[in-house]
Amino acid sequence: MAKVREIFVSIQGEGPYVGSKQLFIRFCGCNLHCNYCDTDFEISKSKEYSPEELLAKINSYNEVFTVSLTGGEPLVSVDFLEKFLPLLKASGHKVYLETNGTLPDNLAKVINYIDIISADIKLESATGIKINVADYKRFFEIGASKEIFAKVVFNENINEEEIKTSIEIAKAADCEIILQPEMKGNKFAVSSECRLKVFEDFCNLYKKVRLIPQVHKFLDVI
């Protein structure tokens, strides 16, 4: 069984698939507590599903989706995912994992059932959490067998060492880095000057970089 906060159809608001229609499954629980997190994944508001019940709920929409596993942190529920994802794939759905990138052992257990991985690289300057570089590198090395990209949320406190470390981690999968300026509601919390400078600083060291804000916040959709 897994506790799910909500299931809904909307557009993907982040990363290279921005604007794409997806079905989102928001799992409860997370192993991190980032300073900027504004996601409601409170367990008291959740519903519990078996793998079969969750699949039936998804298939009740009568459409084949790219299914986004989000949270919270979906890989906290890896025991459930090991049973659920084979059923989901057998139903023809594509699996898009949104993850904080800190649980490489859990990723290894379900990697065969994942199609696309959106993995965060958490900066201490933005999250208040110290990066474990070894765990991140191992996560991206495991994820390199699939389509994977790194998402880096930053604010005006980002520093040169964090930029270099983020690139070092992304190189473990030779993947693209998506820079995402921190936001407060639908407003940037980072000045335009800072956004451009950070983008240029990354591009000077690594060529696979794009800057894409949280578009769903501008569109005022979930």
Explained architecture:
The chain is an alpha/beta fold. It has one domain (2-219): Alpha-Beta Barrel (TIM Barrel), CATH 3.20.20.70. It is 33% helix and 26% strand. The chain is built from eight helices and eleven strands. It has helices at residues 51-59, 78-90, 104-110, 124-127, 133-143, 160-171, 192-203, 215-219, and strands at 2-11, 21-27, 47-49, 66-70, 94-99, 116-120, 147-154, 176-181, 183-184, 187-188, 209-211. The strands form two sheets. It has a nine-stranded mixed β-sheet. A two-stranded antiparallel ribbon has the order 9-10. Helix 6 (160-171) links the parallel strand 7 and strand 8 (176-181). Helix 2 runs parallel beside helix 3 (104-110). The longest helix has 13 residues, at 78-90. The two termini are 25 Å apart. The model has no long low-confidence stretch (mean pLDDT 92).
